[in-house]
Amino acid sequence: STEQSSIDKVRTICSYCGVGCNLEVSVKDNKILSIEAPKDAAVNSGHTCLKGRYAWRFYNHPDRLTKPLVRLNGALTEVSWDFAFDYLAKKMNAIKSEHGGDALAGISSARCTNEENYLLQKMMRVVLGTNNIDCCARVCHSPTAYGMQQSFGTGAATNSIDDLKETNFILLIGANPTAAHPVTGAKIKQKVLKGTPLIVLDPVKTELARYANWHIQLRPGTNVAVLNMMAYYIITEQLIDQSFVDNRTEEYLAYRDAILSLNMDELANIAGVDKNLVKEAAIAYAKASHAMSFHGLGVTEHSQGSRAIMCIADLVMLTGNIGRAGVGMNPLRGQNNVQGAADMGCQPHQGAGYLDVTKEDNIEYYKSHYGIAPNELWPTDVGYKIPEMFNAALAGDLKALWIMGEDVVQTDPNQHHVVASLSNLDLLVVQEIFLSETAKMADVVLPGSSFLEKNGTFTNGERRVQKVNAAVPPKEGCKTDGQIVVDMMNALGYQQADYHADSMLEEISQVVPFFAGITWDNLGENGLQWPVAKDGTDTQILHTEQFTRGLGKFHFYEFEESKEVEEHGAQYPFILTTSRNLEHYNAGTMTRRTANEIIVSEDVLLINPLDAKAKAIKDNSKVRLYSARGEIELTAEISEKVKSGVLFTTFHFPELMINRVTGDVTDKHTKCPEYKVVSVGIEPACS
Ligand code: SF4
């Protein structure tokens, strides 16, 4: 019919989690009618979760920002784009000439495309002359990237989710995929329901823990203790893959001796687990011919986050579960394009393509690609990581911060510290689609665009680079985030061509070695998994013949108690841990502006019945939760999902401000915050 012929179908990628589901968007007269899932999508074969299919109406919500805002006489005031860029160019140039490029910093966004992330790091490095650029991987999977680089040489998933078809054993550590990565979670659940054995290592009785053959419900913060226990039993039961260890790895003997010196009773006591359960699980894992491991932020967001990653890599190498189909070590990336943001160089120590920014050769490489003359200045020091940016702002060393699509006030730990730091800046610039908690504090707010309004690519958790196609034009008054950065670069005097996904991708393919064979046209409908060779051949499985670093390297780390528990545990005896729910996404900026707000409208605190009784806390009553940093009030739900001494909540509602209680402890290697172990006290509210 005529009506049907005027409906366009646009294929794009979900902008919520790192599964990267393909979506088919029905559009008529520049309005989105519905979203479905294409059946031929390699990632999701016709499936989505309720976020991807239904939670998209935020894109034209009345709260959308549609005009640039500049703080004039203390108030955010609507201005023209020209005024905003002139104002910014003057301010940024003045800060750069007075204090140097390192007085400016940028934070990029996993919501934005690879091309937009690439542009932001290019502006910071090439135009402003600083390596002060970071992204939200800092607060989620930076320990994965670091730890896997140390063990294998590449900090990304070794296999594809499709490998679940070929596995016969699943090890799931610190992740709740049926809520946080629902399409992958459903695939794991189906596998398990059909009989594939499952180990779940998690302090919370998640949905998949209910189906697990072994649920090791450890105390939050003790992953390293339990992973070392598993290694101990695999070695003492003589279940290691000797030929793999001999031919493909190094430093095994020192690792083995250290593991064998551990005391299992002591570690079981530390983690609060039954050592026989760990032993049984470890033996089953080692005996499986094809074991796949998955992990999430329950591994990384700890003071020993990077070390726990290397401990998982040790188990994978001990049992030879890497380098072939149906095995491997697979981080469940939390955000749609957090993999891509790091790949594109939004990190202070590595530029686009993960080259060390302090090495002479790499500096020359980047200079030649960016058209910088050999004698021209270029940043040579590692820049600030996000927590260091806040510290530097508070100390007065950082003067300006450019944030593209991150609500750090709501999502970064120790909110009081974050707010104090941002307040001390001379210039805070925020690119956003809504007036987030961070945007409310900004000096300049630039209205960006949602994923439905832009072209580009996202890279999912299995290294799959997929095309994002605009279903509708940017909302009137808004620009794509890439064009905003381009316009800013031009206002600062650097000639940067307008934002077009295909030409940006062409530039990226020349700079990032593992994008060498990617072009806009050859990505097709289902994308390509990096590394992609010049001839366009992509890679489903990493480390097949040898590891990226040559031999895989064993690392031994002993369990160390978190400083948070050591310093505050006596006064604040409960451990709070957090995670996502199915209906909402992170700070809730998008999902709270959809019907999902009606389904789930607050964050609740799970408390074990024994603790509730001891503290006289009733089900569904208000409680006061307090830590060394601050306090909040929320509703308690009495639940057997957490053990005595452990509390759990989600973090989607700004009213709750969970980060008023979280602390400053970070992972030793990457400064990823320890969100998962917070020493708190609890009591009935108004008692
Ligand atoms: Fe797929 Fe994740 Fe989007 Fe759900 S949130 S549709 S699982 S990409």
Automatic annotation (TrEMBL):
Write out the GO cellular component annotations. membrane; oxidoreductase complex
> What are the protein's GO molecular function terms?
4 iron, 4 sulfur cluster binding; formate dehydrogenase (NAD+) activity; metal ion binding; molybdopterin cofactor binding; NADH dehydrogenase (ubiquinone) activity; NADH dehydrogenase activity
The highest taxon in the source lineage is: Bacteria
Keywords, A to Z, come to: 4Fe-4S, Iron, Iron-sulfur, Metal-binding, Molybdenum, Oxidoreductase, Repeat, Ubiquinone
Needs which cofactor? [2Fe-2S] cluster; Mo-bis(molybdopterin guanine dinucleotide)
Where in this chain does the record put each 4Fe-4S Mo/W bis-MGD-type domain? 7-63
Coiled-coil stretches are: none
GO biological process, any: formate metabolic process
Q: How does it assemble?
A: Composed of 13 different subunits. Subunits NuoCD, E, F, and G constitute the peripheral sector of the complex.
Family designation = In the C-terminal section; belongs to the prokaryotic molybdopterin-containing oxidoreductase family.
Q: Could you identify this protein by its name?
A: NADH-quinone oxidoreductase subunit G
Organism listed in the record: Litorilituus lipolyticus
Supply the source organism's classification: Bacteria, Pseudomonadati, Pseudomonadota, Gammaproteobacteria, Alteromonadales
